[in-house]
Amino acid sequence: MTDADRTEHENENRNENRNENRNENQNPNQDESRNGNQHRHEAPQESPRQHQPQPNPPQARPLPGPEPASRALAVPDLSLVVLIGATGSGKSTFAARHFKPTEVISSDFCRGLVSDDENDQSASGDAFEVLHFIAGKRLAAGRLTVVDATNVQPEARADLVRLAREHDVLPVAIVLDVPEQVCAARNAARADRAGLPRRVIQRHQRELRRSLRHLEREGFRKVHILRGQEEVESAEVVMERRFNDLRHLTGPFDIVGDIHGCRSELETLLGRLGYALVRDELGRAVDAAHPEGRTAVFVGDLVDRGPDSPGVLRLVMGMVGAGHALCVPGNHENKLGRYLKGRKVQHTHGLAETIEQLDKEDAAFRTEVGEFIHGLVSHYVLDGGGLVVCHAGLPEKYHGRTSGRVRSFALYGDTTGETDEFGLPVRYPWAEDYRGRAAVVYGHTPTPRANWLNNTICLDTGCVFGGTMTALRWPERELVDVPAEQVWYEPTKPLATEAPGGADGRPLDLNDVAGRRIVETRYMGRLAVKEENAAAALEVMSRFAIDPRLLPYLPPTMAPCATSTADVRGEADGGYLEHPAEAFAGYRADGVREVVCEEKHMGSRAVVLVCRDETVAADRFGVPKGVSGALYTRTGRPFFDDPEMTESLLQRVRECVEGAGLWAELETDWLLLDAELMPWSLKATGLLRKQYAAVGAASGAAFPGALGALEAAAARGVDVASLLDRQRDRAADAAAFTEAYRRYCWRVGTAAADGAGESAGQQPPGLGALDGIRLAPFQILAVQGRSLAGLAHTEQLALIDRMIAAEGARAARDGATAAEGAADRPGLLAPTRRLVVDTEDEASVAAGIAWWLDLTADGGEGMVVKPLRALIRQADGRLVQPGVKCRGREYLRIIYGPEYTRPENLKRLRIRHLGHKRSLALREYALGLEALDRMADGEPLWRVHEAVFAVLALESEPVDPRL
């Protein structure tokens, strides 16, 4: 149903629906008790025809004259049972005999709770408040509840009926109509009631008599009247399963989305699902069975708009009748059913076409259709409660409940009261707030493709509008779809738009990220994003970031290891601010025994999304032709201004993935990589010129002259030795500072190919426009359908080593025919050296420290220490830091300044407050994992973007940038 359908239906039938809901609350055989065709799987104690509505159900209306001496009292297994009878009629004895003690709430007991006297009538007001509170809590928890009180007054019963309706359960009345003398004798036999005046019993009896014929109109869905002691004593309470309760059916199921008269596509879809069609003598499909015993489940909207609604009905009714399928009603069936009953409805939104098609069928078929629709149940709870199927969706509080309100939501959903640009009502996004255990599968709202969202999925993919017809295999959670044969009906609102996220039917919205936000994550629960941080992120995201469709992840910040508090090597010229001993000790304290030390490349953090080809990028990410992936910074900005440069790099990575055989091995058409892109100067040119080179240039200009003057003064006998030594040390520190950042800077592209600006750290040319650029991937974050963030880091690096080896093999092949020496030129991909350390083995720890010292002595930035296994938690359940950086002494000159190693400076700098940085790193890590999981689960773009945006917003939190 489109939103226009809903508007039209609500406008023309609001009063009629209100009356129908009122009738449903009064008639015990309506709503969830009206399934005349598909109860092969339900309530085995009754035959199917017993579920058809009856004008005067014998168990629901008191009839004059004597009733049988023994009878079964049908009570739904989730209901509010109200015992009605005069004092002394035996209600408490009856309740104790037929119900569990915990199911019964007695007014006398509640009166005793509040007053210490069960007969203190002055405490009745408080007692009934307690009774209603307890009953409400039980009903909210889905527990059968029995109220043991006289309940002979209409106002007392009205409160209980209202309570049942609030919790969407059926109110059931059991009346104990016992003679006055029997009640009097029983009260006289009780010491606490021996003095009860006879007039009280007489008043109760009069009020009971006045109530008997009005209980149904008061809202009781079942009314059982027991007259006399013999009937009370011989009665048996029989628990009935609700007709929406099919938890005993475990499938497997094939759940089919909205059909709308597209019979041919339905037959094709059933064939793809493995069903064998059964046809009648005229060749019409009248049944379909699966050889493996699977059951089809239809989410409604079988009719209207399409070319053959009768054919769809004939097939679905045949499958349901044969026990091969279940079906819930859609709003279009509801409207057709009202038409077939002779109600006045507007022949719009496809109903006119259905009526015209049905007029060609015989009267018997139309009658059968009316009975079938009338017998449909609003929703089903299946597979042990793990699966709920309905038409328009259903919040968790309505699962398994029975009321007109539940039926209305299951048929139509809900709206916010607003209208969109097409003049259609905006639907309330109940699925965005859903957190239930049961998977909810529904249709109703056309969407370009089916996506899981908070354990819910909409299967209406607009077949009648030219989209697809989709089915979900359960419990496999596999989607199967077939394309529409043509556009059968032009939609009022396009299925998809060009806006980011429009291919999912839900474009990105400012309200998704603006203001203070709470993001639910699987690894750290609810994480808050401050309003001011969101505003800062919005500025970056809207002005500078790449297309959000290609931005499924942002890497988290990384905290440094704990500050080294001593000179670990005993050197006289100062100690270390960061040292691996602290990193190993920290992880050992967290219970992590094995860690991997990875070489830290001095470049810029880069995320690479590489697709197998442009078609994959267009189909999976919805981007225009000519784009095969993305290369972006840790703030979501494109690395290169030139798209051709990006495509050249992606092509090189693509070839390496192909050469390593990872497309097939990982069963994917795209990869998401976390990496470092070098040189640092490639993206930090402005920072280098304004901040670092300026210091180097100033020191290079100032110190030679100053030293020369001081040396000349010393030669003349002036006592400047102390000042001269101090200035020489400063000049040495400045030179070390300049050398530190120069190691990470070299020319790339044409300048590199010409050999300009080569330095000891520079790589020779060999990649054309990419000459001098090195990409060091260190993690495969995600592939099609799954996140790989939990894969051990050594396994991750082994996969990446294969990519690097594939590039080397290709270079060797090319070198055989290319210019001499071409095969010796470095490729694009750079390896990441690593070492595994046992934090509880002193020799292993010492080897790790020595390895780090060797790395940093050669001018390396340092290393990152990570738990060997990912996603590690501490004993208290908190996440362990996913990695800590341990930077070398010379590299830290860039961060803390040329003279930071002097003892007086180290003493001051060792006072570092790392708590906020560590908290920030963990929160961003959890949000990144959440984004990857949402993408792997196939959730819509706005859901993935919510977590990505939150990472960027947290980057605005104030924290020492040197950390």
UniProtKB/TrEMBL annotation:
Residues 54-67 have a biased composition (Pro residues). Transmembrane segments: none annotated. One of its GO terms (molecular function) is phosphatase activity. The keyword Kinase applies. Residues 1-71 are annotated as: Disordered. InterPro entries: Ap4A_hydrolase, Calcineurin-like_PHP, Metallo-depent_PP-like, MPP_PrpE-like, P-loop_NTPase, PNKP_bac, PNKP_ligase_dom. Residues 536-958 form the Polynucleotide kinase-phosphatase ligase domain. Residues 252-447 form the Calcineurin-like phosphoesterase domain. PANTHER family: BIS(5'-NUCLEOSYL)-TETRAPHOSPHATASE PRPE [ASYMMETRICAL], METALLOPHOSPHOESTERASE. This is Polynucleotide kinase-phosphatase. It comes from Streptomyces inhibens.
